[in-house]
Amino acid sequence: MADTDAYFFYVLLCEDHSLYGGFTTDVAKRFATHLAGKGAKYTRVHRPVKVLFSQGFDNKHDALHAEWAFKHQTRRRKLVFLADHGVRLPE
User: Fold this and answer.
1) Which tens digit of pLDDT belongs to each residue from 33-73?
2) DSSP class of 53
3) In a domain, 64, yes or no
4) Between the CA atoms of 39, 86, 65 and 78, what dihedral angle is there, to the nearest 10 degrees?
5) Domain of 12: which CATH number?
6) Is 89 domain-assigned?
7) Fewer CB within a 10 Å sphere, N or C end of the chain?
């Protein structure tokens, strides 16, 4: 599979220590869009500072499902998900 055909679920850490989950075909480009204030409404207010996690999928459906599942968890469960994937929040 070519990189251009990949779909990604990603998690951003925001300045206020909130977490934002999203979907894209290019994580670096999407993060730059968020930084420029042209991404999601949420990241215009809660400025992103770092990509904490990204996971590639073979198809759009699975990536969107991962995003949906992440967004519908409590913060505590989101932190468990990240820890289970080897991600620790900066202190």
Assistant:
1) 999 999 899 999 999 999 999 999 999 999 999 999 999 99
2) E
3) yes
4) -80
5) 3.40.1440.10
6) no
7) C
Supply the range of the domain harboring residue 57.
Answer: 3-84
Does some domain include residue 91?
A: no
Backbone φ/ψ region at 17: left (φ over 0), alpha (ψ -120 to 50), beta = left
Global model pTM greater than 0.85: yes
Helix (H, G, I), strand (E, B), or coil: what is residue 1?
Answer: coil
Q: Is 58 left (phi over 0), alpha (psi -120 to 50) or beta?
A: alpha
Distance CA 26, CA 14 (A): 19
What's the domain count of the chain? 1
Q: Is 52 in contact with 13 (CB distance < 8 Å)?
A: yes
